[in-house]
Amino acid sequence: MNVSIIRRILGYVLILEAVMLILPCIVALVYGEDEVTAFIITAAICLAVGTAIGIKKPKDNVFYLKEGCVATGFSWVFLSLFGCLPFILSGAIPHFTDALFETVSGFTTTGASILDEVESLPKSILFWRSFTHWVGGMGILVFLLAIVPMSGGTGSNINLMKAESPGPSVGKIRPKMRTTASYLYVMYIAITVLEIVFLVAGRMPLFDAVTTAFGTAGTGGFGIKNDSIGSYSPYIQWVVTVFMIAFGVNFNAYFLLLFGQFKRALSIDEIRWYFILIISSTCILFAATYEKLYGASDALRHSAFQVASIITTTGFSTVDFDTWHGAAKTVLVMLMFVGACAGSTGGGIKVSRFIVAGKSVLREIRSYVHPKSVENMKMDGKTLDKNTVKATNIYLITFMFVFVASMFLVSLEGHDLTTNFTAIAATINNIGPGLSLVGPTRNFGFFSDFSKYVFIFDMLAGRLELFPMLLILNPILWKDTVKQGIRRHRKPKSS
Fold first, then answer.
1. pLDDT tens-digit readout, 82-139
2. pLDDT higher for 369 or 434?
3. Residue 442 carries which DSSP code?
4. pLDDT for 263-294, tens place per residue?
5. Cα gap 416→422, rounded to integer Å
6. Distant-in-sequence, close-in-space partners of 126: CB < 8 Å, separation ≥ 6
7. Cα–Cα distance between 265 and 258 in angstroms, integer?
8. Between the CA of residue 277 and those of 95, 186, 312, what are the distances in Å?
9. Cα separation values, 191 from 186, 218, 244, 263, 313, Å
10. Residues in CB range of 445: below 8 A, 6 or more apart
11. Which has the closest alpha carbon to 142: 189, 181, 113?
């Protein structure tokens, strides 16, 4: 394994984090907050450590998928470990485990919190908390590819991007990966700014608009109000609903629309099913809440908002949906697992994987009727290759194993089944709120440190598509790496 290139990438990541910390410093200065010291100290530490570990140029710049996964996994761990320092140094969240939980939840765009209330927090802390969503939404390494010339070549860069990008596969928008990453971030920034404009037009304060847009764009869900989005106007709630859905769409579709390829963009099967799920789920929730809880207008608004929030794994809320009818809550729990489109900022298993799995089941059923028939599965008019189907099946099986193992570990604490099940579902799918004790009006603060570390792993694993985190925990990888190091440094015996 090419350890030197991994170390170089980690150095870049920490230096980039130091640069990002300038923004909350500015916010602290604008509002005259003492927390500016915490951000300056953290930025200095990130810059010093990043420079120290990344200054040595690697002899070999080429890295494969293995190095890409390891570099990605460690990048997000380092990003979170150093990113939690402002919470600790400022005293906002003095306990390390809680600060790390909140930071991982931010960068992974989960939105699960340990805080009982947030409105009393300094503006700079609230800004950093929401900004972590925006950074984690598109990905820190995608941003790195966009601004830093990585000399490993396109093959190496796509391995890095594959390890971080959410979804079954990563396609190149442009021939060069750096250009692809640049296009993704330009579109990401443009849609974020557009949302801020619409929110400010609805008389939302600028600070609220920026932090809400960060949470929406990254599909994260950290609110700056104790009731999330509930106290804002119906107009603002509808704006957030529309943009949550927009950020759950595969960004390749936006690229196609941008260059006038409307037919190709509208023919993407995943996007079509994504909107079918949103519309049908909203209708079910509307039927469950209309008249019994709200009038027609409010029922439609709350139903559409919660469906958009859960399927895109954003996690914002306008009401306490934990009090809704059992059928409505069941729909929301199912949407937790489905998630948004591949290539979006949303989490979950992804709509495309469910399409592939559904097609596999139907093909298997038809094979019982016509045993000798040979049927090719198609998606977006193209034949699905065996590797895609295999990768989908392996992912679903791995997801099930991680989910069950996490459920067992958290259950040792003795909480009820609904709390444990939805807490794991909410963290591994990067959603935020669950049901019962982790409902939209509650938080994760009551769990033990042990359970919080299980959740931290699940949040990271869910955001990175499981395998990068599982790989860095694999002892075989490190045993082989140590052996390679020994062979490299062993001197030949003298005769």
1. 999 999 999 999 999 999 999 999 999 999 999 999 999 999 999 999 999 999 988 8
2. 434
3. -
4. 888 888 999 999 999 999 999 999 999 988 88
5. 10
6. 118, 211, 224
7. 10
8. 40, 28, 11
9. 9, 11, 11, 22, 18
10. 98, 113, 114, 115, 116
11. 181
